[in-house]
Amino acid sequence: MILYTPLLIALLGACVVLAFRNPRIATRVALFIGGLQIASLAVIVWQVHEHGALRAGRYLRVDALSSFFLINIAFISGLVLVYASDYLLHAGEGRFHSPRWFYALVFLFLFTMISVCLSANLGLMWIMMEGTTLASALLVGFYNTKGAVEAGWKYLMVCTVGIAFALFGTIVLYLAAVKAGMNPAAALDWASLMEALPRISLDPHLVKLAFVFVIVGYGTKIGFVPMHSWLPDAHAEAPTPVSALLSAVLLNCAMYAVMRYDAIVSRAAGAAFPHTLLLIFGVMSMVVAGLLILVQRNLKRLMAYSSIEHMGIIAIGLGLGGPLGLFGALLHIFNHSVGKSLLFFSAGNIRENYGTLRMDSISGMARTLPRTSIALVVGSLAIVGLPPFSLFVSEFAILSEAFAQARYTVAVLFLVILSVVFGGFAYYLLQMLCGDASRNSPTKGKLLASEYSVMGIAAACLLYFGVRVPHILTVMIQDAMAVLR
Amino acid sequence: MGLVEVATERILNSFSVFLFLTILLMAVSRRISTSVLLFSLQSAIIAAEAFATGFRERLFEAYVVAALIVIIKVIAIPRAFFGLVSHLNTSSDVKASTTPTQSVFIAAAMIYLSYAAVQSYGQSVNVAEDALAAPVALILTGAFLMVSRKKALMQMLGLLVLENGIFLAALTTIFGMPLVIEIGIFFDVLIGLLLMGVFAFRIRDTFDHLDVSKLRRLRG
Fold this sequence. Notes:
The structure holds 2 protein chains of 2 kinds. By secondary structure, chain A is mainly α. Chain A has helices spanning 4-18, 23-51, 64-87, 99-118, 122-140, 146-179, 190-196, 204-222, 230-237, 240-269, 272-292, 299-320, 322-354, 365-368, 370-383, 390-404, 408-433, 449-467, 471-484, and strands at 54-56, 60-62. A two-stranded antiparallel ribbon of chain A has the order 1-2. In chain A, strand 1 and strand 2 form a beta hairpin. Chain B is mainly alpha-helical. Chain B is globular, with a radius of gyration of 18 Å. At the A-B interface, helix 5, helix 6, helix 8 and helix 9 of A face helix 4, helix 5, helix 6 and helix 7 of B.
């Protein structure tokens, strides 16, 4: 029953919030529903931590791996809802274009992402993953400008086609399982498949074929190069809270799906094949996105490319495997979410104040917007992986795994790209922070409580996790790793 | 063998040929309405195939799925498309970037390619090569239609053809996915089309045309 609560809260919440036309009341209602949602997710996570995997009916199941991703969803969605509460009040009243529509769509979006993590069945997981595209497409096109419409259309088409390939992969895996003698009702059930795998043998050709389609399909949603074309547009044109949700939650949910398949394929056909594919996509994403960071003009596009780069890092961690690689990848998922939300929040403030995100038309920000500048600097230092911030810890873990396995090409490329990205971020940051403050003066200048509180929480989290990873998080990540073994 | 059994066998043996025919005709069609009718015909063929599979394998679920295809893909979606075409007030030209001759050659090449691709898998899954090549050909043609037709509506249609191919792949190899999953996929397709319709209106309103190849403000 407790597995149904967050889903019901999200669905009912989406309907309820639509009933309030007044933006301020709608915002308060949304915050209340969001609070309930987070509480219900926390209960699930706690139950899993205490009693192990839970199951509800044939289609819902939660284990330590999904509960790790649920923590991520709960934490980031809480930050985003609080941040959006003031940010969104300027939105007008129109069809699909008012705070109440925004919150309704956000709750639908959360519903689909939580469902992805709670699905026991790989078919249901696909349905919900496609649902995430559908729920967020209108959010990407929320502002209804030329750019937003174009980005929304591109997002919808590219991701729908991409994910169709994942469906094909799901069907091929189902075919392999049924041919091997599994009961058709259980053939798509992840836990039953994993349990049956040492005993039954799936056709390795079919399983590998399935994984190729799945990694291309879900990889489109992760933003792996070369299927990433939708990602910078969608992140740049969406309202800032949505950009944070896309980057910090949606990409991770797609990564979660790939991890589930990776575990099955590793058991059925050996780990070498899926891990090599993950490494190839990871290195490719990291290199291409890292170089493209250098030529960006728009702050949010810069961050979008940085998201692709970090998804590459996570894929490298998964592809290397091993205790440190996997630990680093999971920890990096969490750290990247926090860091990237902080960066998007500060980008949102910059946009509100300057009315633009073009980096060459912003200067002297350190003097005019000191608090936002601090957030931007902290976020950037963290995201490029400098100590003492948390991303350094996870990147270091992945890097040491690469050296331990003597994969020197991967390790060297990893280090080179990290320094290139550092150079890019430093160049653009200095350009915006220093210089003539009078050229383009901000309009508002003051940070609201809702904005600096969430930015403070995110920054504190980055710093604290960089100094020491909390014991409870370590335990949860180790539980999640045990699920994949 | 009764008449029904003979008909079932005939359908199962010949559906690939008819599907290849719809693919080639779609490649040459210059009007949106013709393409939509061809899509409807193609879905009807697949529905017949699902029905025949249900009859031969004694699968109740396949009948349900066949009925769903008839309702959604043969009737509802084409009607919605005609509604969209008339509401959007757009010309009926598909705005192809290849000539019909080129298109038909490319489609033929894709059919050939799909035969080549499935050759090694025919043995291991125990299905006739024709039946395995047809879904792959549909997927490839759907993708080809999406990249070579500039009208937003035709991209939606290409996506539907691609989806038909994936559905057919499940049907011919394992007699379809579990019913609940199948219904969920249908639901996703419907909502997806609805949203694309919303975006088609928005593209028309903000850009004054429906030519998605001209949407290139966002680059790099």
